[in-house]
C-alpha cells in the first residue's frame, strides 16, 4: 500500500499536483506494508517570477528625428514584432525607423514566465518640414553588422530619390533610385580600397522644400 504525507499544497490522489506560490521543497512518504519498506522522496519546486516589464521609447519619428530607440527592461529576453524597420528584433533596446505610425509588440521572458506589451511610435513627416538631411561621413564594410553600408535608409519616404557614388577618378561605382538600398563598398565584385569617395544625392519628400541636391565626401574605413 502506498500513501502520501499530508502536506499543504499536495493532493492525495495517485497523481500529485503541486500548487506553490514560492520556492519550496515537497516530500512524499512511501510505504509498502507487505515488504515493510519505507522511503521518502523530495522534490524542489522553483517558482518563476513574472517579468516586471517596463517599456519606453526615445521619442517619435519626424523630419528631425529619423530613428527611435525602444527599451524593454525587467526581463531576461525580448522578442519584438513587426520585424520590419527594426535593427534587431531580439535586442532589449532596438532602433526602429518605421515609415508610418506603428505599434511594436514585445514578448518578454523571465525564467518560464512570459508577458507581452506594446508601444506606439508615431510618424509625422509634416512636423519639421525642411529639416536637416543627415548623411554619414564614414562607413566600415567589414561585415560586423555595424555601419557596414553607406546609404540613406533612415530618411523619410521620397517621391524622388537618386544616390550616386564616385571614386577618385570620377568613375560612378554605385547608383540607385531606391532609398532603402545602400553601397556595401563593393564594385564589380571587388571590395574597394580604403579612402574618400564622392556622393551625390537628389531627393524630394514631405520633409524637403522642393527637390534637394546634396554633394559631399564619405570615407570607407576598415
Explain how this protein is built.
With 222 residues, the chain is mostly beta strands. The chain contains no helices and 17 strands. A 5-stranded mixed sheet has the order 9-17-16-11-12, with no helix packed on it. Strands 3-4-6 form a 3-stranded antiparallel sheet, with no helix packed on it. Strand 7 (102-110) and strand 8 form a beta hairpin. The chain is elongated.
Please state the average pLDDT score: 81
SSE succession:
EEEEEEEEEEEEEEEEE
Strand order of the largest sheet: 9-17-16-11-12
SS-derived structural category: mainly beta
Low-confidence stretches are 1-11
Percent in helix: under 10%
Shape descriptor:
elongated
Figure out the total of helices: 0
Radius of gyration (CA) equals 29 Å
How far the N terminus sits from the C terminus, by CA atoms, comes to 75 Å
Strand content: 35-45%
Number of strands: 17
State the major sheet. Answer: 5 strands, mixed
Amino acid at each position: 500500500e502506498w500513501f502520501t504525507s499530508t502536506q499543504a499544497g499536495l493532493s492525495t490522489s495517485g497523481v500529485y499536483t503541486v500548487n506553490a506560490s514560492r520556492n519550496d521543497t515537497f516530500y512524499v512518504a512511501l510505504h509498502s506494508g507487505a515488504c515493510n519498506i519505507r522511503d521518502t522522496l523530495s522534490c524542489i519546486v522553483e517558482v518563476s517570477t513574472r517579468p516586471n516589464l517596463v517599456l519606453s521609447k526615445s521619442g517619435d519619428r519626424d523630419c528631425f528625428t529619423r530613428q527611435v530607440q525602444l527599451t524593454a527592461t525587467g526581463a531576461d529576453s525580448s522578442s519584438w514584432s513587426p520585424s520590419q524597420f527594426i535593427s534587431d528584433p531580439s535586442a532589449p533596446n532596438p532602433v526602429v525607423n518605421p515609415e508610418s505610425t506603428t505599434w511594436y509588440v514585445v514578448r518578454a521572458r523571465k525564467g518560464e514566465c512570459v508577458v507581452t506589451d506594446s508601444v506606439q511610435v508615431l510618424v509625422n513627416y509634416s512636423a519639421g518640414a525642411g529639416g536637416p538631411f543627415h548623411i554619414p561621413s564614414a562607413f566600415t564594410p567589414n561585415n560586423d553588422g555595424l555601419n557596414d553600408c553607406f546609404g540613406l535608409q533612415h530618411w523619410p519616404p521620397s517621391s524622388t530619390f537618386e544616390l550616386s557614388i564616385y571614386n577618385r577618378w570620377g568613375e560612378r561605382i554605385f547608383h540607385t533610385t531606391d532609398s532603402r538600398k545602400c553601397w556595401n563598398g563593393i564594385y564589380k565584385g571587388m571590395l574597394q580600397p580604403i579612402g574618400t569617395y564622392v556622393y551625390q544625392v537628389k531627393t524630394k519628400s514631405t520633409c524637403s522644400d522642393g527637390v534637394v541636391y546634396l554633394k559631399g565626401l564619405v570615407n570607407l574605413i576598415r
